[in-house]
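Quick review question:
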């Protein structure tokens, strides 16, 4: 039985690795094509390749569930095509036992996904974006649209570039008093100094009922609750954040009386991703023993891709819907997983 465990695990593991490499290769080519229009003096072809390299951990994290789905279909499909599954079943091995043998190598990919999502993706994604922003030039009109807004009390703040080492570039602050704009300032470079931010080359415009005045300051101290760790969260998309960052930032938003639904949705998507991966594996196993038992390998791969796209679309529809209609993000994330897992269990029972 140990040899059989290792054999099936090896087949599934190698098939998943091959699928993941293939998908990453296609993603790499797609990113190159997508970034070609952005090439200029500062953002060279080399800088583009560095940007794509730093973005690779995010791609791996996103593709693992679907690579596992197709990898299981390919690995088990190859065993079914050579009649090895028939021999294994004839030897008295149940569908449940085979399912557990398949799940063992999948747990490796789930562990890899968790490590990437918590420790690698957040840093790599911010490094990629901040490096790209500086190469393009943060005063560039196209790049300026890639910055981030943040609100703190009566102040609205725009960041063109947020680096993970506690440096900011192109910071615009709008301060309101009693519903009216009181002042606006632009700072080219800001650096964190332990318990405050040091602004350099500050241009301040003050608005009163009588006049508008402008003042140029070589430097200014900025006291705020924002820290580099918190800004690293603000600067990134919720999908690229770790579970700890999502949880802490959601609490910060609630303390500021701001809406935190988008971050709660990303939190539950990451929290339940291992279950989503397992549900896709159950679908793959049930397809091999059921509807796809006698079809070709190409048809198995096509079915896996189609089901993965459908699963992704359902997640993409329910997630934003929870924010619009106000139902729990947990429910929105759990519904596709429950449906997928339920379908897999029903098909496996019929096959068994």
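Suggested answer, residue by residue:
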């Amino acid at each position: 039985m140990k040899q059989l465990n290792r054999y099936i695990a090896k087949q599934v593991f190698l098939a998943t690795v091959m699928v993941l490499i293939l998908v990453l290769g296609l993603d790499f080519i797609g990113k190159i094509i997508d970034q070609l229009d952005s090439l200029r003096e500062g953002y060279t072809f080399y800088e583009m390749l560095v940007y794509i390299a730093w973005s690779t951990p995010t791609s791996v994290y996103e593709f693992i569930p679907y690579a596992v789905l197709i990898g299981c279909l390919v690995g088990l499909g190859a065993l079914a095509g050579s009649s090895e599954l028939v021999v294994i079943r004839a030897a008295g091995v149940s569908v449940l036992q085979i399912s557990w043998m398949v799940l063992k190598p999948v747990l490796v990919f789930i562990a890899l996904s968790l490590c990437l999502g918590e420790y690698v993706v957040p840093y790599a994604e911010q490094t990629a974006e901040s490096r790209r922003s500086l190469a393009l030039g943060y005063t560039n009109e196209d790049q300026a649209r890639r910055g981030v807004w943040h609100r703190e009390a009566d102040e609205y703040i725009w960041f063109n570039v947020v680096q993970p080492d506690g440096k900011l570039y192109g910071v615009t602050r709008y301060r309101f008093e009693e519903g009216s704009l009181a002042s606006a300032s632009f700072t080219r470079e800001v650096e964190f100094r332990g318990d405050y931010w040091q602004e350099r080359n500050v241009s301040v415009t003050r608005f009163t009922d009588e006049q508008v005045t402008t003042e140029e300051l070589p430097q200014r101290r900025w006291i705020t609750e924002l820290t580099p760790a918190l800004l690293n969260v603000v600067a990134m998309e919720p999908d690229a954040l770790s579970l700890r960052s999502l949880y802490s930032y959601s609490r910060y938003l609630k303390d500021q009386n701001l809406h935190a639904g988008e971050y709660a949705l990303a939190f539950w998507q990451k929290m339940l991703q291992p279950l989503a991966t397992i549900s896709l594996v159950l679908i793959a196993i049930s397809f091999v023993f059921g509807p796809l038992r006698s079809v070709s390998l190409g048809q198995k791969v096509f079915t896996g891709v189609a089901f993965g796209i459908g699963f992704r679309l359902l997640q993409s529809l329910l997630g934003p819907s929870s924010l619009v209609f106000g139902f729990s993000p947990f429910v929105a994330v759990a519904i596709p997983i429950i449906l997928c897992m339920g379908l897999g269990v029903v098909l496996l029972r019929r096959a068994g």
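Why it works: Residues 95-136 form the longest helix (42 residues). The longest strand covers residues 180-192.
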